Every structure is written in C-alpha cells, then in structure tokens.
Amino acid sequence: MDNKIQEEEKVKIIDNKKYHQQESKFNEHDHENSLSSSSAEEEENENSAEQQFINYITSHLSDHLTVEERSDYLQKVLSQWRKHRKHTQEEQQMYKKYIKTIKENYLGTNSLLPSVHPLYQFQNWKLNPKLIQAINENNFDSVLVQVHPGIYTFECFDEEFCQQLIAEINHFEKWCLENGIRVQRPNSMNNYGAILDNFGFEPCLQDLMTHIVEPLAKHVYSYITPPLDSHHGFVVEYSMNKDKKLDFHVDNADVTLNVCLGQEFTGGQLYFGGVRCQEHVQTPSLPNEDFYFDHKIGYGVLHVGKHRHRACEITSGTRLNLILWCLSSKFQAENCGNHKMCYKWCAYHQINECFHKNSHVKHD
C-alpha cells in the first residue's frame, strides 16, 4: 500500500479535455450562404474577446510604469494570449472533426450502430435490482454503505455487464487503431482510457446521472444544490505497461461516481485525503482524513469532486474503471466564483468555525 500523501505533494486540478461548452462560436454550418456570416460573427467575437482581455490587463498594470513600459508589457502578454487562443481553437476544431468521424463511421460490436446497439440503451444496463428498488422507495440506507465520512459504496452493475462494457471499449480502441484515429483520452492526467460520451454512451450516462447518481447525492450531499445537469463520462485503464497510478488531485465535478469494471488486478487502491475548497486545496490532511478504498468489480464509490484523492499504484493485472463526473450549474454558480473564499463544505472552514466559536466561550 502507498504511503500517506506527503505534505509537500501538490494537488492537481484535473481537467476533462472536453470542448462541448466552448464550441458555441465554432459550430459547423451545412449551407454555403451561412459561412460568410459565421466567419464575420467569429471575427467580431474574437475582437471583442481580445478587447476585454486588453481592458482587464491595462486596468491591473502598475501606475508606476511608463507609457513605453506599459505598451511593451501589453504587447508581450497579448502575443502569448493570441498563441494560446489559437491553440485552443485548433484543439476545438480537431475535437469536432474527431467526433464527426466517429458518428459517421463507427460501428459497435456485432457491426451495430450505437443508435440500435442494445448496450447503448440505458434500459439494457444491468443495474443492481436492489439499488433500483432502494431509489424508488427512498430507502437509500439499504444499499449505501458509508465506508468513511463522505465516501459511500454500493453494488452498481453485475460482472457480466462490466465485461460487456469492457469488450465494447476494447472494440472502440481497436477500431480507432485500425483507422489511424488517435483516441481522445479522458482528461489531462490519464494517458489511457476513453471518453464514453464520444462514441455513443452520452444518453446512457446522462440517465445514469439523473436516475441513479442524483437521488443518491441528494440523500448524502444535501448541500449540493440540485439538479445535476451536466456530466463527463469516461473509462480509465491502469496496468503494468500503461498508467500504473494517478497523482493526488481533485475532480472537475461536484459529485463523482467511480465504478470498478475489472479485470483481475492487485493494488490500485483509492486514497482519500479530505474535502477542500480552492483556497485550502494544498493543505495537509487532518487527523482521521486519510482513507484507502479497495475496489471490487461491479461496485461503485460515490464522493464529492473536491474530496482529494489519488489512484495508488497497481501491482499486477489490469484495472478499468468507469468514472462519471457530475456537475450542478446552480451549485457551481453558488460555490465556485471566488477562489479566495472558503466554503462551509471545506474541512478547514469547519475547523475555523469551531475555533471562532470556542474563542467566544467564557471560561469561569
């Protein structure tokens, strides 16, 4: 088992590498007559964004700088900003082309289109019947087990379904390899795995979030404002000749569901080290916050995205996990606007609150 996270280890903010929310200005148009107006609109938006950036930079420059110094600095920063923006736009265009290629050409196992393939229909997903019953009856405690404060586990899928899903993922990766297509990886930290949303599973994962994750989250994380209204769904893979582990990080999510699909493996526990806001994300773990979770095929672990964690090193075999990051736009608006603010769900907020209360207690 890995040692406890060292205090000097930095927590990474994992990014999802999806561009859906950023694509609105870059939508493709089918008709020739719309291309010119689209280009003009893009240019106008580009100029507006650049002017906003210039206004922001100039408003924060020191008054002690000369006119020449201000101009030189602004030109350097603006040049960097333009390069970064161009790179981002190129990535967006490549991502759109990637998705378009998959939609037009990919056939799942048995040479079936995802639109008619049974595995791509949520009603065919083999969820634990007791889980469905518990949600329908609001009897969550009959299936949810709190293994550590804020961390819950439950039986989600049967092993046969897990193997079917793995087979489909392997089929997609093989298809990409045979067609010279580079698989879009799940996020900025995992080098292996695939985004399930990209090849037909997005409706299934939306249903999984709405019908399974959200009811459970409402029950155990009442402070997260419903509804959960967007997701990022993917599979990660760890093995001896691929990624063996994942560094300490927080997810780009409000609630995370992590389900072990298989296969045979040893090691690879999940280490958890406390819930933190952005202001306190780099602080050391508090007493009793350290926890190691052992994966079991078909079982899910539910935790908030800001619960810091890492995947410990796998020691043999191969492990694949389905990860579903879920976001609430309302909760994001309420809690993510000020990175210097500590929120009530942060462990350090609770300590400070306790300290202030005790400091006002009169002693005889």
TrEMBL record:
Source organism superkingdom = Eukaryota
Location of the Fe2OG dioxygenase domain: 229-328
Question: What Pfam families does the annotation carry?
Answer: OGFOD2-like
Cofactors that this protein relies on: L-ascorbate
- Molecular functions (GO terms): dioxygenase activity; iron ion binding; L-ascorbic acid binding; oxidoreductase activity, acting on paired donors, with incorporation or reduction of molecular oxygen
Q: Organism source for this protein?
A: Didymodactylos carnosus
Taxonomic classification, please? Eukaryota, Metazoa, Spiralia, Gnathifera, Rotifera
Compositionally biased residues, Basic and acidic residues: 1-33
Instruction: Give the region (Disordered) as residue ranges.
Output: 1-49
Keywords assigned: Dioxygenase, Iron, Metal-binding, Oxidoreductase, Vitamin C
Q: What is this protein called?
A: Fe2OG dioxygenase domain-containing protein
